[in-house]
Every structure is written in structure tokens, then in C-alpha cells.
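The freezer alarm interrupted the setup, so I double-checked each line after restarting. Inputs confirmed:
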Amino acid sequence: MSAAKDLVIGLAGLGTVGSGLVQLLKSNASEIEQRTGKKIIVKYVAVRDVNKKRDLPEGAKLIDNPLLMIEDPEVQVIVELIGGTNLAGTLIRKALENGKSVVTANKALLAEKGEELFTLAEENNLFLAYEASVAGAIPVVQTIKDSLAGNKIHNIFGILNGTSNYILSEMSANGTQFDEALKRAQELGFAEADPTLDIDGFDAAHKLKLLVRLAWGVHYPYDKVSIQGIRNMSAMDIAFAQSLGYTIKLLGQAEYKNNEIEAGVSPVLIPAKAILSRVDGAFNAIHINGNAVGPLFLHGLGAGSLPTASAVLGDIMSIMKNIYDTTGYVTKKFPLAPIANIDNSVSPWYLRLMVHDTVGVLRDVAGIFAKQSISIAQVIQKKQQEDGVPLVFMTHETTVKAMKNALAEIKATNILNAEPVAFRVLELA
Amino acid sequence: MSAAKDLVIGLAGLGTVGSGLVQLLKSNASEIEQRTGKKIIVKYVAVRDVNKKRDLPEGAKLIDNPLLMIEDPEVQVIVELIGGTNLAGTLIRKALENGKSVVTANKALLAEKGEELFTLAEENNLFLAYEASVAGAIPVVQTIKDSLAGNKIHNIFGILNGTSNYILSEMSANGTQFDEALKRAQELGFAEADPTLDIDGFDAAHKLKLLVRLAWGVHYPYDKVSIQGIRNMSAMDIAFAQSLGYTIKLLGQAEYKNNEIEAGVSPVLIPAKAILSRVDGAFNAIHINGNAVGPLFLHGLGAGSLPTASAVLGDIMSIMKNIYDTTGYVTKKFPLAPIANIDNSVSPWYLRLMVHDTVGVLRDVAGIFAKQSISIAQVIQKKQQEDGVPLVFMTHETTVKAMKNALAEIKATNILNAEPVAFRVLELA
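Predicted 3D structure, all chains:
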């Protein structure tokens, strides 16, 4: 281990996100080194019960008091993933007082008691990074902080709580009542045994408060955010909304208008045609409107072990770049890409032929497909048009090479009235 | 002007994006200073014709040879917005050789001749920033470079050319033929007089090459990207695709598989239900899948004066943060937000009442609405259910206060069988 070469971190908490981070540090070590020229060394892992068996990063010391990490001058960054507000708050404060930057996913702490900590970080010119606190894997903090730094933000709104969104999606798709949808969410691990934070809107309000802070550079006290959850949502209202052309979503909304800021969380009817209505299940999504950027929309996983750890790791690497003053990739000259032969690429295909209306055409084409092992999923034959009979095929997965061969063979016959049209098909969820 | 305090830049090019940047530097000066503690001073503006009348930033010198800016040691960052590959390439090379970071929107230059320039930047530990080159206002470069830095990227695909997407959207929505849709795009300023770069897929391929470079840290030569444009797109194929449940989009797609990378641009059928199918008009959108982040989707304006300038400005400010070693907002303690009174907030409302089935109920409710100046857009009355008759209203825009008052008055009558349900409505495009 060498602090001169590597980044040394202390990790507090080995729950869902902490374990995800440990897993990523191992599986993605080559990507990390490629981009930073350094390794990330976990010197300490602090957990409540040091006797429980765990997968630890190589060489990490297991401790039960996270505050011990602060005293080690070799530790450069503290990663706080224990949650709660007491010990976590103390840990972050002491880390910042001792010259260590902090990465955290603790939205409740930052939203309710964060101002002192943010100020402390700024005063010491340290990072208090919290991408993972807002909308999990979606890079909304970095987007507002850096990419949109030169914008006047008009408003921000979105789906900030995956649990509520899962329940509302379930109710919308299947006409399920709230209690049943909640139970299902709990069985699938999308909701906690005590779902209060999620379904009563508090979690979304924590995130909204942090977004308001970032977008407008102000302290909007968490207890001033107006909050209405979805606990009493009725299947009847979801059905009425649908019949009127709307979807009900739990939205966090913040707007800057007439030199004032309004921020609230509540169930809102949005047009079924809007892209936000398409945000289903445990996904999160955020609209940001700025005077330069226009409308921007970000969509991704709002929770989960690896997605949240992805955001934590991104923050750690940004801090590394700052500490070691690198610009991104450290490779001076990029190696040539290993280029795949597109002939081997596999997908379904759409194919339209304009053929003479003669007996046996379909048989001939089908024969050529069979010869190339191309399996047909659908066929449409339409009636005679000006330039022939359109014959449309959707194939199952096949290679570019097989399709090229088939097209060449079809062209070599005498059945075509026009150039064939062939497009690939991308099946998406 | 003080180089110790402010950031001094030289701007080459005052076309669509350059003018947008000048406009933003003026209109958003307070946001820039709030986040960086500094001003951005444009010391030079280089244009082809110095005799033409122009809106210049205060104090800027108009010059016709952009290379002159390189020789001024006070200039810290060169912003290259002249386009083309010859002079622009020379300008960027000389800037990097002389210790100046560069911000550019020049995708063609970077995609076709960028490797030498990127290497030069890395060798000198300078920034060659190009967020504006790929998908305009969408922060995809920063997302891949920083937020997803710790990910193994599986694939990237998306709509990278707004002109083509506008044409395909137009053809899909109205059954328009290609030539007519192109003409319309040209009339509206979405397509150039010579649309080759856009409709033949070259522009999307430039962007894709840059994304591949960034995602996998490799040089994927631009001429190895397989390219098929939309020039011969037929309204018939769009109609067939629709009848099969698909939308045709011009996609850039790159995938890392079996240690090889495949990259191509082509028209592709995607399911009409997919969120990507909803990307209409001149918008761009990008899906990124990584082993930690999972699926991430970004959507925004891919071109235009202010959106592209927004990305340029974000890059300039990121470089400032690096030069002056600041972490984000420079305010140590954030001021209290000016909190809007939510009672004055205006929106349409959804309201459901469960009422007794008696004569005059609708009249009574309508009377209360009229008294509060709430205008009704739609009413649904359904037949008797177990707990009463559901009476559903969609109102036109009204304040929270008026709705609260109306609800209080309705509750004070004797018509309700259950608590009323009231949600706000958000109208979205």
C-alpha cells in the first residue's frame, strides 16, 4: 500500500450499498486504474458487529468504531454508508474537521442536518459528495452542479422514490389496491417493513431539499417542504385518472418564480403521453429546465446495491481526480479499439421486398431464408401497388452476414421490382 | 480585468453557438460568479469578418486571426467554435502546446483527427473539453467520464442527430414522404441547405466515435464505424413498422462484447412502447448500460444556440474549478431560501367526491366552485357504489388556497360520504 500512489479510504457501513461498493472495487479495478492511474485501497471497514463473517476488501481492517479511521492520517476519504443521523453526523463532521473529504449516501442526514456539514466542507475546501443520496444511480447532482452550472434553473421535478413508484405502477397496471401493492413491494424487497419514509413522501422530500439547495444555492429547510404521500391512494382514483388520460405519480416539484422558491412532494396527475408517465417500477426520473439547457430528462435506477454504489464510486473517483490533479483518462495515447466484425452481429431484421405478383415468390424467398438459417417471425403481404407487391418479413435473430447473403440471393432471382429495404430491429424493455 | 481573480478566455467563432455563449455569459453572470467566485472575461473574439456589426462581450477585442489569442499569456482557455477541421485543428493544437486548455463543440474535427489533440492535452495535463460536441445540451460526456467512471460499460445507443430524428418523427406522425419532411426541416431551420452530414448518418457517427472513445478508453477510427443514413427512407416502411408495433429511429449503437467493440449508425426498428420511441422532433437521447449503474437514459436538446452554449459554459466552469481548486459553490454558508407561500401556487386540480345520491348535489358543488372562482374543465358522475356516488372534477388552473377553501366549504355541507380526494395536475408536453 502506498498513499503516494493510491487513494486510501475508510468505509463505514457494509450493508446493501457498502457491500456493493466492495464488490465494485474488486470487479471494476481495471476501469478504476485505467481512468485514474491509481488503486483505491480500503484501509478500514467499520461495522457494528465485527464477529460476523464478511467479504472484505484485501488488507482491510475490520473495526467497530468508525471514528477510529479519522485518526489515521493515511486515510484520505471517508465513505459514510451507515445511515442514521447521530453517529453518521459525528463521523462526517470529524472527518471534515480532520482534512478528509467525505462521500455519503445519507439523504436524511444531509436534508435534515446538512447545512453545518456543507459549510464545514466549504470552509476546509474539502468535498462532501452525495450523488448516491439523490436518485441512486442517476447523475443528477453532478449534472446540476457541473454540467448546468452556468444555467438559471427554472424548475426541477420528478419521481424521486422508487418504492412509491413501484406501488403506483402496480396499481395502475393491474388495478391493485394500495395495501396489496405495498405487500407485493415488500415481498419483492422494493419496500421496507416500515414503509413510512417512502410512502409518506419523506424520502422524496429529503432528495428534493438537496436538489433545491444545489440548483439555487440556498438553504430550503426540510420542514418547509410541503409533503403529501400516497398512503391513502385509491385504485378508484387511478382508474378515473386513466380514463381522463392521466397517470398518477408521486412527484417532487421545485420551482423558482417571482424570486421565490416553491418545493413540495405530492401525488400528481400527469398526461399519460408524457415521457414521465413511462417511468415504471422502481425507476426514478428527473426533469430539469434551465434557461440555457432547455428541458433535460434523466432516467435510471433510484436504488439498489450496485446502482447506488456506482454513484458512490463516481464520487470517490472525482475526488481522486481533484486530489491528484488529473483530467480524466490517464492514458496519454489510447490503444486501437478491438473492432468487431459487424458481419457476426446478431439481431432480428425487418425486410421489405417489392415483388412481381407471380406464383411461388413467397416460396422462393422462404427457401433462401431457410438456406441461410434465417427464421421468420412474421410476414405481411399487401395487395398490389404501383411498383409491385410489398412483402414484409420480421425475422428472428440472425447475423448480418446471413442477411447479406440472403439479400444477394434474392437480388439474383428475378422477383424484385425495386431495391430491397432491410433494417435491424432492437428489442427493448 | 484581473487574471488573478477572473478566468480569461479567447473565443473563436461567433456563429450560432458562439453568440449563444456570449448571451449566456451576460444573462447568467450572477450564477457563474455564485458557483465559481470568479467572472469569465472574454478578452478576444475571433471572427472571419471584423467589419460586420456584432454584439460583443464588454471589453473584448475583435480579431480576425484566432491564432493571435494563443500568444497572449493572460488567456487561460481557448473556446473553439469556428468549426471545420483545418484552422480549428491548428488553433487547438497550438493552444494545447502553449499551456491553454480548450473547449470545443467540433465533433467532426475530434472524431476524424482528434487522437493527436487528445494525446497532446493529456501530455500537458490540460483539458480538451467537448461536452457540446456530443448531443448538445445532454451531459453525456461528463456522465460517462465522471459519474460512470467506475463502471464497465456494456453498451451505448441512442438518437444522436436531431435533424434526422425530426424528419423521421415528421414522417411517422403525418405519413409524410422523406423529401417533403426534409424540406420542412430546412424551412424550420432544423436541417442545413446541404443536409448530407445529418441525413447520411455522418454526424451521428462522429458523436458515436467520441462516445466509444470515452466509454472504453480506446481509439475506434471513425472510418471503421459502419454508417447507413435515412436518405432513402420510405413512408411505406415507417407505416409497416408502425403496424408491427415499431418506430423507426436513426440510432448510433456501440457494444462491448467478447472483448470486441462494435459501433454503427443505422435506421433501426424499436418497439413503440420503449421510452426511446417517445423521443420526438429535434431531441436527442442516449441509453447507457453499465455493470454497476444498470440502465441509464438521458434526454434533451441535441442542438441549438443556447443548449449547445450551455454545454460549452459547463465545460469552461469545470476547468475553472480545476484551475482554482474549488469544489462547487463558493458560498461557505448558504442563505435561507425565499420560500413561496404554497397557497398561491396555481395548477389544474383533480377532485373526487363520494356523495349521497340526492337531488342538487352537483348544483351545490358547482356553486361552491363558482364562489371560489374555480372553473370546471370536466365532470364525471358514475353510478352508485357501496360508499356513495363518485363525482369527479377536473378544474382549470386555480390556486391551492381556492381549492382549500372550496374543500372546506364542501366538507361543511352534508353531501359527503367520505373524505374528498384532491390531487394537482401537471400538464406536460
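Quick read of the result. Chain B touches chain A through 132 residues (CB under 8 Å).
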